[in-house]
């Protein structure tokens, strides 16, 4: 979805085959990933906003999605980006060191490098909430396993994370509206009996 021409022929061929073979409900997340802001874990009153297990439904309470666009990624944020293949935890430079330590067990942003991995376990409320979110996302996909990759701002994975985000070109409608229009067209064709 990038307007720049940095994709290799292998990337384009993989994308084409993936596009043709992927079920529609998965394809929408692959084209337009889910993005959650993790740094807004507590309300101003100190009430947790996500990561709890609902006692009535026994499901994880998710934070609201934010648009998958760089303009919505707060400079001091920590984000979970799910493109159905991989879960990325994208950490910006100005993120709260206490949240970074609670999530990864490192002192701060400067300690994140290419070898930083998501820990198996930490004794931190923030870590448990994020782990609950990840488990909830996996359950939504019938418990399919997804890698978790840590991407830091200006780190080696940042270009790939940014390639998942949608750039809006001047004069173009945003991707969400485009996707909604495509869904309406598909539903209309289904109702008319053109699609099986």
Features:
single chain; 5-stranded mixed sheet; 5 strands; globular; alpha+beta; 196 residues
Number of strands: 5
Compute the number of helices: 6
Largest sheet: 5 strands, mixed
Which percent bin holds the helix content? Answer: 25-40%
Low-confidence stretches: none
Kindly, what is the distance between the CA atoms of the first and last residues, rounded to a whole number of angstroms?
28 Å
What does this entry look like structurally?
The chain has helices at 9-21, 24-31, 97-104, 125-140, 158-164, 175-191; strands spanning 34-37, 65-66, 78-82, 86-91, 147-152. With 196 residues, it is of the alpha+beta class. Strands 2-1-3-4-5 form a five-stranded mixed sheet, with no helix packed on it. It is globular and about 55 Å long.
Please describe the topology of this protein.
Elements (H helix, E strand, L loop, with lengths): L8 H13 L2 H8 L2 E4 L27 E2 L11 E5 L3 E6 L5 H8 L20 H16 L6 E6 L5 H7 L10 H17 L5
Parallel strand pairs: 4-5
Antiparallel strand pairs: 1-2, 1-3, 3-4
TL;DR of this structure?
The protein has six helices and five strands, in the order H-H-E-E-E-E-H-H-E-H-H. The chain has 196 residues and is of the alpha+beta class. The model has no long low-confidence stretch (mean pLDDT 81).
């Amino acid at each position: 979805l990038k307007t720049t021409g940095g994709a290799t022929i292998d990337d384009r061929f993989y994308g084409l085959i993936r596009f043709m073979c992927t079920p529609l409900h998965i394809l929408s997340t692959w084209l337009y990933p889910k993005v959650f802001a993790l740094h807004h874990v507590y309300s101003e009153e100190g009430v947790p906003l996500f990561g709890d297990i609902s006692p009535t439904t026994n499901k994880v309470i998710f934070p609201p999605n934010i648009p998958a666009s760089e303009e919505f990624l707060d400079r001091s944020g920590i984000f979970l980006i799910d493109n159905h293949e991989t879960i990325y935890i994208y950490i910006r430079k100005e993120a709260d060191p206490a949240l970074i330590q609670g999530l990864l067990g490192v002192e701060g942003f400067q300690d994140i490098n290419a070898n930083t991995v998501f820990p198996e376990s930490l004794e931190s409320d923030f870590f448990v909430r994020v782990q609950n979110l990840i488990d909830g996302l996996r359950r939504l996909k019938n418990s399919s396993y997804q890698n978790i990759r840590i991407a830091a701002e200006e780190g080696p994975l940042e270009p790939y994370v940014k390639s998942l985000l949608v750039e809006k070109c001047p004069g173009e409608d945003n991707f969400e509206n485009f996707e909604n229009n495509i869904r309406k067209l598909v539903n209309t064709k289904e109702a008319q009996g053109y699609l099986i």
